[in-house]
């Protein structure tokens, strides 16, 4: 196509840059960027945003900033990509500053990224104000955004706010439940972990995943609830999609060892598909 300049349009460069993102080919992406400038397609919003997204995926915040600053009228996609780039490169404060300088309403994707930045900083006050903005301005609930806010409250230790949001969510998925279970487990509220897990299984809204169960097994070890841990083990056995492998198998072994149930721990060890150093030497 390079020999036929008239065949180029914004779709050509957008798809070429998308391919470079998948390949993580920085050099080829820069070649496409040079071709964009040479063929005078840089003024196209689609191409500008594709270039910006490419540099963000390459974690090249310098070139991403240069592209963003070169866009005369950045749209919400441009702003979101730039905020995401700062957040991805761990310039979390810069991500929030960029968000505050937006001259247009953010979308739900923008707000998810900002909530993630607030979680990293532990910025409870600012995160609450962003949550308030979501409640006032967004007419439709978004489960991805709700989960981001839920994770934010849990990471900041605001358990009451997290619980209030969780109870009032119109729809919850496995990530919502796991965020609550994990948050309580990390702060030592093991009784709450057990109650939530039992509610999750009995309610059949969603099925627990590996991360959920690992947190529950950790809680069982802490509150010395062997019978509950055995029940969780039975639950795992009844789920053919849950393979005793990695952290799940290790969590079971660790629990039984803590209770002195060495024989049962050995039985679990023998069924592991893949064993690592933690499997061989549980704490």
From TrEMBL:
InterPro entries: PPR_At4g14850-like_plant, PPR_rpt, TPR-like_helical_dom_sf
Residues in PPR repeats: 173-208
Key words of the record: Repeat
Pfam families linked to this entry: PPR
GO MF, any single term: RNA binding
Domain of life: Eukaryota
GO biological process: RNA modification
NCBIfam families: PPR
Matching PANTHER family: OS07G0578800 PROTEIN-RELATED, OS08G0340900 PROTEIN
Protein name: Pentatricopeptide repeat-containing protein
Upper classification of the organism: Eukaryota, Viridiplantae, Streptophyta, Embryophyta, Tracheophyta
